[in-house]
What we know:
- The structure is a single chain.
- This protein has helices at residues 22-30, 49-55, 64-67, 71-88, 111-123, 148-163, and strands at residues 7-12, 34-41, 93-99, 127-129.
- The protein is globular and about 65 Å long.
- Helix 5 (111-123) packs across helix 6.
- It is of the alpha/beta class.
- The N and C termini lie far apart (40 Å).
Amino acid sequence: MTQPKLRFLGIVAHPHDFTHFAGTLGVHTSLGDSATVVAMTAGVGTHNERLDAELKKPKSEQDPAIVDQSPEERAAEKEDELRRACAFFGVTDVRVLGFPDKPFVFERNPDSAERLRDVILEVRPHVIFSQSPYLKGPHGHKSGAPNDHTEAAYATAMAKQLSGLPRL
Length: 168
């Protein structure tokens, strides 16, 4: 008897955060399971190593093609990076919801949970990976303050709850 195939859903704050569970998804896609990755934000203001490196240089040595990129160009670049990284691990269903980062705040973006609910209802995952919703304790963030990661976790938890409720 063949093993039933699993469906995985990974939800992260920024495209860069896919690396938190990329290896696990890679193992499962190699076994024939399916995976979907959703980034809540395009990560324009987060994890931009190229821009950070340029800004550390003296102004005269900075590459204007990097420093002067528009937010839309940075978002497109981040999404392309995410798609290529996901493809390396066998993930072809990649979605970037495009909510603002720095900070992404669930309370200011209540439709984020509804959009995630729609993804959950479409994908019907057996397993959902998300970021830690804890602010303190061994799994919390050092600052103990809400940030894009915890807010994405809150949106994921709410979306999971909403996906079990009938829509009137």
